[in-house]
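Bug: token stream looks shifted between consecutive jobs. Job 1:
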Amino acid sequence: MDNIDKENQEIFQEFYESEITFTKGISSVNPNLTSVQEVILLYLKELSFYLLKLKNFGITNNKIKETVMYAIFNIITNAEYNQDQFHALISNLYEYINQSKILYEKYCLEHDILIEVPKTYFKYSKSFDLSDAIRKGEKYFLKRSQFFTPKQKDLYEIVLFLGKSMGVKILELQRLGADHDEGYYNILLLFNTIVPRDFSEETVEKQIAQTIEVYYDTAKKVFYKQIELYGNITPTEVSFSTKPGKAILVSGSDFKKLELVLKATEGTPISVYTHGMEMLMAHAFPKIKAHPNLAGHFGSGLESSLIDFASFPGAILMTRGTLQKVEYLYRGRLYTLDPIAPPGCSKIEDFNFEPLIKSALEAKGFTHETIKPPMKVGFCEQEIIKKIDDIIDKIKAGEINYLYFVGLLNAPNPVYKSYFEEFFKLMPKDCYVFSLCCPINTEKIYHLDSFYDYSLIYKILKEIKTKISIRDLNLTIFLTRCDKHTISNLLYLKHIGIKNIYMCKCPTTLITPSIIKTLTNTFGIKEITAPQKDLNETLNK
């Protein structure tokens, strides 16, 4: 807390010492917002029915797509609407439902096609206000809870996770100048499966399987689009130190917005720092790293945003809405380009970064240098392929019988560090590990400093698959990262034939215990417990 100014110390201490306040401020969604999101989802489900029918007739509408993605983005970021914003969205969705319905029925009549009518349990209105939405959203939530069995409730939540995860990837692609219609229509298909009374577990599970295939394709497109724009990933040492002077912090995952800030601050005395583990990887791309005002990385990650933001003595750009009701910690230093700015966060209009730069110049900045150990990110693809060839040869020769993947950590975690140190010591000699989180290199362990998203794991698995069947391997994957994409990646790994998958213990505000139970019972995914117990299970002892 040394870098937090005295005016903010008492406020920060209140947050720091109060677990309840901290949880409400950062991780959870308030009940009123949940009810509002329920209503928006109902409109999206109704609209999805007609949009999918029209797509089958070869009829699409990009303006409607923009509104749908806008609504999905606001659900992903838990954006809090004011009355005018909510009314505008609901009015648009209402009009699009009616327009799409009329067009669908007209086409059916003209082509002698039987008109299908979706079953609805909700009265749609153009003039909903927020108080109406809160009441009706809560009422519908309770009604849905009565209709659904416990498993159906969990499958419903998994569908929402997948829809949000897919939405994030599509939005990332759009920001990079590309698009993915298949992903967009897959989200509509997901919404179209979660209707009470007609809810079919078999249909939903089939749609989940299809969605994770499309999710993987979308994530792959994001990965290669980044390479196209910013160059091939290279091993890079990232500074976690700070230097005296004015500063801007760019938090989140949007490399495009980071690049825009770097260009906007060229020629100014402002140093730009990244924040969050996804943004950390930006340093491994040559065209981003080449900017002279990119000073390094700051803070512990998005989970520690409250501490990191409060202690950063400059302006902050959030590239996705992640915080709620903590605006008074930042005294007008918080900015965003998101469609709806969180409370206390100033919106950047038309990519005009002058207010952000002005705020950084007026803030006190770093008064002295701090020295912290750097961190390595990135990888050398040729080196990885060479290592994989060596491992495959040893597998075929019978020298390696068990293969493990470990990663990715959101941030250094002493609990999992000690867990895997013990796990590695207990492994038999015929085991081998690809580790993306614990910096240990031995004859049995190959450590990669990537800290990237799941794409590196998939690159390695794809390379292995060209030489040996994944389903024939004794292979276990430990996913130690918990975020909005965790469920998507757990299910995709299971889908491609990974026999044993373990996940870290996630906060209940992100993945509830009942969903964990469904992941275990329905999809065979387990939680990490103790090194010896988990090792014995993977070795079938």
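Job 2, same session, no restart:
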Amino acid sequence: MKPNNFINETETLSLKDYLNIIRLNLFPILLITLTTLTFSIIYAVTARNIYTSSASVKISQAKSNILEAPFFMESSGFGNDRIIANEIEVLKNYDFREGVAIALIDSFKKYNDPDRFAILLQSSESGVPPQLITLPRLTERLASVTIEQKRGLDIVQIKAESPSAWEASLIANTYASVYFNYDLEFNRNQLTIIRNFLEDQRKDKLNELNASEDILKSYQQQGGIIVLEEQASQLVGQLSQFESQKGMAEIELMASDKTLRKLKEELEKQDPEATAYIESFSSESYLKTLQNEIAKLELSRDLVTQNNKSGSNLQLIEDYNRKINNLKEKLNEKITVYKAGALASTPAEIKVALQKIIDEDIRNSSLRITIQQLGIIIAELEKKFNILPGTAIELARLQRKMQSLEKLYVLVEEKYQEAVINEQSQAGKVIVVENARPSDTHSKPNRILIIMIGLVMGLGVSVGYVFMKNYFDNTVKTPEDIQKRGENVLAWIPQIESQVTANGQNEFEFIVAKRPDSIPSEAFRALRTRIQFTRVDSNSFKTLLITSSAPSEGKTMISGNLAGSIAQAGKKTIIVDCDLRKPRMHNFFKTNRFPGVVDYLFGQTTFEEIVRQSEIPDLHFITAGTIPPNPSEILGSDKMREFLEMLKGKYDLVIIDSPPIIAVSDSEILSQFVDATMLVVSANTTELELMEKALGIIKKEGINFIGIVLNNFVYKSTYGSYYKYYYYYTRPKKVEGPKLPGSVNS
């Protein structure tokens, strides 16, 4: 007797096991695969064609205008991946998409051709023409537009998809156009602010100049024409010149303050820490000293130039220019050092903004120093102006104001024209390098790919389903499942081909009698041989109990065919139906249930009346008879023991068909009266846990257990070579005449 070593841990499957699982489940695999493939084919055939169009834009370094300040230095590395990634995020945000949606709705109204559109239309009831989609929904739909950078290039591709090829190209081109205008407006923003400011100043100064001219004219008409002396006229000219310069510098300072404040606000949003460096740079005393000296020398040079009518001070003017140039070189060197320090570790996306702030801050500081120095010169000239004769001072004052306003207006006009040119000449960093065109062929769906994916997915899902089912299936499948638990497998019986008659019975259930040349019949002969060799002394082995762990596992069929096989070997055999709850032996032999063993034990019939002859000469059988209310008490009675002893004396082997051992205690009782017990399990039906529980009951009672028979085992799919070789050696020769239905004759 082998020990009962139950194996609870997970077993490792070999490649052969996996292939076997697939072979056993070919039908569900094919069914699931074909179903998935069918759906994929239907989808591929009925799917709507989608067209793709793409527009390309190049994002380059922002270019300065043609009148840019000399201190402005172009930034490097603008077109790197990080900057372009930021621009792509701008293109994807909701506000930008909303602007594109507005432009597309305008285009829809312009073309007024709904047949050309699909994305811009919303589905409607049948018979009602599709309507234009709402702005929020169109904005959401535009999120499907693909925006990506071409690898290694500063080019961004804008791809749009639509069932209409023309609409796809329209969406891509509108995206590119809106982005171009947005970028151009953004880059001109600062210049537009300056231009608007100078335009307002230009109008104001023109009005002031006209008013001053009217006052001077009125004064001259009332007091007569008075001509100033040459010295007074020269003084008025100098004052008006410097006052106009100061006024222009103040206007430029106001514009610079606005620009600087705007630039710092933008920089603060991007990098708050960068503004601290700007403040320290602005307070650098050495820079202020150089700027102050330059401003003094320039004003002194201008004074000498105004008084140099005879041309005698040209050398002095050259000396001033030389000193001014030397100071400017030192200033530029210092500024370059500070810029290098500020831009060395600055991220590329804020480098341009930081550089503009530095340049504007230098210009702002220079303007303040110039205004301060001009104020000093004007104050000195006013001292001389105030000592003019009384008759001339009022005319001089009016002429001074008019000339100052006139010169200031000329300067403002010049700056305004420069600002207009700057604004118009400012180019954006976005260039549309390729416009989208309607595609002649659709990009989606790829019907062949969909079908291939459906096929692969079907195979994957079906195989996965089969393996998952096998993983959670805890039934006995092969003899190895039993042997791995340390149990002896007496034989495995293949599935018997069924042919049900009109009364619902299987005509070939008694297979050893009906088809003795079949594979199942040979399996029963093998079982007979192994049972005979389980004991050396065959005389001590007279009674065999056959039970199962649960109903419907085929123990009655196993009992009947085993008995028939033993009888065919020349041994006098009898089989007794002791399943007194659900007897079936009478159906197996196609006879009546009465009288039977119960009737004999109650003394209602004789032994000769209950013993019946089967179609095999040495095989007799006894049916159950009347179903009693207390089967366990009857089977455990002394009469039953005496009855079995009597049968042992009359027959070589007594086979007892008993109920399932887990369901009732009948089999446990009978096992105490017999020489050996055999357990029947059904492949793909009996759960391993139930089999182990049945084995536990059998071995706990000290029963002489000889092994397990595996019923309904599929030879052909599992042990193909066994089936092939057995079929080769056992098939009968061809004979003329009709064949037995369901036979294996070839």
